[in-house]
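Protocol step 4 of 6.
Sequence for Cohesin subunit SA (Chrysochloris asiatica) entered exactly as in the expression construct, tag removed. Do not edit the line below.
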Amino acid sequence: MSTLRSSASPSSVTSSPPKGGPSAALPADERVREQASQAYSDSLSSDESSDFEANLSHNVKRKRAAKRPLRTSPVAKHPKKGSRMARGHHQKESEPPSNDLFGAVKAAKSDMQSLVDEWLDSYKQDQDTGFLELINFFIRSCGCKGIVTLEMFKKMSNSEIIRHLTEQFNEDSGDYPLTTPGPSWKKFQGNFCEFVRTLVYQCQYSLLYDGFPMDNLISLLTGLSDSQVRAFRHTSTLAAMTLMTSLVKVALQLSLHKDNNQRQYEAERSKGPGQRAPERLESLLEKRKELQEHQEDIEGMMNALFRGVFVHRYRDVLPEIRAICIEEIGSWMQSYSTSFLTDSYLKYIGWTLHDKHREVRLKCLKALKGLYSNRDLTARLELFTSRFKDRMVSMVMDKEYDVAVEAVRLLTLLLQNMEGVLTDTDCESVYPVVYASNRALASAAGEFLYWKFFFPECGTRVVSGRERHRSPGSQRTFFQLLLSFFVESELHNHAAYLVDSLWDCAGSQLKDWESLTSLLLEKDQNLGDIQESTLIEILVSSVRQASEAHPPIGRVTGRKGLTAKERKIQAEDKVKLTEHLIPLLPQLLAKFSADAEKAAPLLQLLSYFDLSIYCTRRLEKHLELLLQQLQEVVVKHTEPAVLEAGARALCQLYKPEFTFFSRVDFARSQLVDLLTDRFQQELEELLQSSFLDEDEVYSLAATLKRLSAFYNAHDLTRWELYEPCYRLLRKAVDTGEVPCQVVLPALTLVYFSILWTLNHVSGSDAPEKQLLSLKERLVGFCELCQSCLSDVDPEIQEQAFILLSDLLLIFSPHMTVGGYDFLRPLVFFPDATLQSELASFLMDHVFIQPGDLGCGDSQEDHLQIERLHQRRRLLAGFCKLLLFGVLEMDAASDVFKHYNKFYNDYGDIIKETLTRARQIDRSHCCRILLLSLKQLYTELLQEQGPQGLSELPAFIEMRDLARRFALSFGPQQLQNRDLVVMLHKEGIKFSLSELPPAGSSSQPANLAFLELLSEFSPRLFHQDKQLLLSYLEKCLQSVPQAAGNPWAPVTTYCHSLSPLENTAEARPQIYSRSKKRRAEGLSRLKGEDTSSSQDESLQLSSLPPTPPLTSTAVKSRLPLRALEEVEEEESSELELAQGPPFSESQRPRCTGPQHFHSPLSSSGAGLDNQLTRLRLMEEEEDDVLAIQDNSSEEWQVTDKQPSSYSSPGEHRLDLLDSTELNIEDF
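Step 5 output, structure tokens:
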């Protein structure tokens, strides 16, 4: 076995073929010819050696050279003596042959074998015409409109032909047949490859060994693959690699024929002298000689393709080309492992595992999967595995999910077929992936885990061709190992994700509910408390997975639905689990009812049952036992999870369509009666007693919690719980003597009572008396909640706020939408006091600075995260009230002013609120943003005073907030033009609203607010800036100011409105002639109509300046420094794509014109077309602005129709604004 001569990955990815060495000074055609002629001698190099040359003797090379001319020599194109090409024909030499081959392959109307047979017939009739047709087929497949004529073929070398075709290549579009979208081109690549494969297959007994067609075709494809034109390089590489794959199959067949021939020859020689046939021996020798010559020919062609194409293109700059090379070399190794499965070829796949493109890495892993899946080949992969194993293990954490999936599957094959290769450390890198959010990746990791842990101990054994049934002992071992892995690894807290990961590979074992339940019900089991809880969670997770057939919450799967077979399996599994668990569920509840963590998931099992089996299988006795256990669990526990699970389980059974409905109704009534009587008795004792015993308080709170949980899922209106709970709450508000643990469930009970009453009256036209009664209850409860907002206990305050938010939203004017006008008397509007208290509560409980989080593992960190979620819930409730019109929209300023300070905690909620508010009313939303800044400024001014205000950290934070507000206007500059101007005008008024005393030269108290306004200046049009400057000057005329000492905020604000503020605007502009004429015409039309105020300003045209053209295909108005940064970024991106600078042996050697496509060429239009469209856009926009300025002499434009979406014209105008570049998410 040969060894890897270089363990390092290639240093760069080249976009063109290497250049250098002795042939560096040769012309391009001579270098191509020299490369092909030295294909054999160069292949003996130490770094890229091939295995074919060892089989070729020097004598055979001489014979092959004598048999046919060099492949790349122009002489090889001339016909052999006596051929049809030499005898001439009726077609003129300058006339290109007709080429219907490309259209036939594109249409794929007939099978490829018939198409190739037709071409072979035409080739046999006229070789030059047939071969030119084949050449032009490949040229057309590259997307080139040029053709190769007979005269070009006779007189020009391959490099000259390629240079000529490159000059004729159409670069208006970056698309070519392999990349063109559309249904007609969708299957072209498959048809193209099928044609090449069929061509080799049909020629393997005839033309394949003729020196003329294949040698020249390989020479042409090699030359095209060296081209700098992407279409030539991509298409020819695909053709060459497909041709190589087909030749490998032919070589494999020849190898098999040689082996058969050798066996026949040995068998004939072993016969006695009387039985031996000399003629037979002689024919076998001739056949062997012929096969040997054919194999040498095939190996020569394969070596030329590998040397001329693969070695250079496997590191091409185009990822599609690299992926083609890696995919094909993987197929060569699998089909012809004798020659290709060596380290000298494997190193290319190992190097490319580090490729930066997803598709290339994916092809590498798939190629390796095909090799490692064959146990017979793994012995030859030991050196490669030891060298690249670390890289394969690290790819489990690849950022692309499909690559990570293939990496895990590859490691699974290593685990199966190469024992001892993966260490424990390697395996530990895969274990956490079992809990990944992507289901495909988690499932692959689950399969790896199964083969590592479970299969050696409890896997299915195959005996006499049949799978042996798993014994109960092996199933117990399986669940014990599963418990051990989940508990000891401590990677996750929820076993449902582990069950889902193992479902595809160990689903039958996980659905062994008999073993699971028997393990739980054993009396002498050696399971601890954690093991029991985990085993119950595994049971519930497997039941849920079988019943619902979808992964747990948060795990992403790309599938949309189940197949018919999967739905059938799902239905069968649901029946099986129901039949098995119905008798055992009461027993499980009886055993684990004392433990809340175990009782709650067991009660969830009922939601996955096929409950009709209780009726059809006559299992009512088990239902009675279940109802008894359910009542005992509810009476025992007060934990919300257990009570909620019990209420939902009873709700699942409480359905009129079941025949056992009456029994469930009786059990529910019995349970609620018990709880209600206990509540009434304990409530009277509490109301009459002056001293509250701790046990009595606990008992009353527990009863209220149980009733509240059941009131959430069941209609308990007929038990009339509203009045006693209201009396309890009234005493709590009036006296403050009722403990918090009693008040919280009482508030929830009244809340559910109001909602169930609303459900009754909204079913049909209810009498007005019921509506007024409900409205009275609603108002009374809202008053109680409003009083609770000022309670000393924060839990009561938060609960009251949440209930108030929900009720105000439910009973808002939106409740009458959809044909519910009869509910209009129930609409409730909060008064100003309640709105104020809600806003104050938000400031005191939501916008507070939390402590710093640690590593996230401590109990304190978990509590902080839970509190943050609670605060986010409170803020979301308040924002919903704003957006649905329940609260005044101006109250949103209390939220928006904390946008920047609490961006990490509530940024997504505030951003969504801001977006929705803008969609409702753009103008009002803009005023609210200004109001938020005014409030913050006023608060800071009252705390710190006007001196040195702009240097305070709080003021700097306000500037950041103003900048974020400015970014929130988005790229619709024309649409927001009036809003931004209005904001500046109102801000100027506010900054000058509090003037200093007469005779004082001190600046106004609010003048520093102008610095905040300067953050919105980039959103202004050029002419609006000048008009705002004039407006500011008029406003400052009434303010006394020290001569020669302008105030700093005024200077800063004027500088933001100055035309020199934006360097791109101050730079000389490049106008097209049509634009100059339009500008001059508009200025002449306006003439003397220009107002004096506009003359006093800088007298700038109302037309926005035209952006200068840059070297890219997009026109922008960037400052000079920004343009330099963009150019540096573009050059760095190009360097990154091309890799480090070429070494002397890697420089491009194409001397023809370079035809690289610009980045925009792939969109279907060239650079000139792009610039033309941009010029037309700007001219249309100039007309719009000119019409606006002519139609009004005022500085404020009329408002566009309110819409959250800009028109195409408005969006194009953004190209004129340099501030729209590099906008970060606000």
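Step 6, annotate. The first strand starts at residue 462 and ends at 463.
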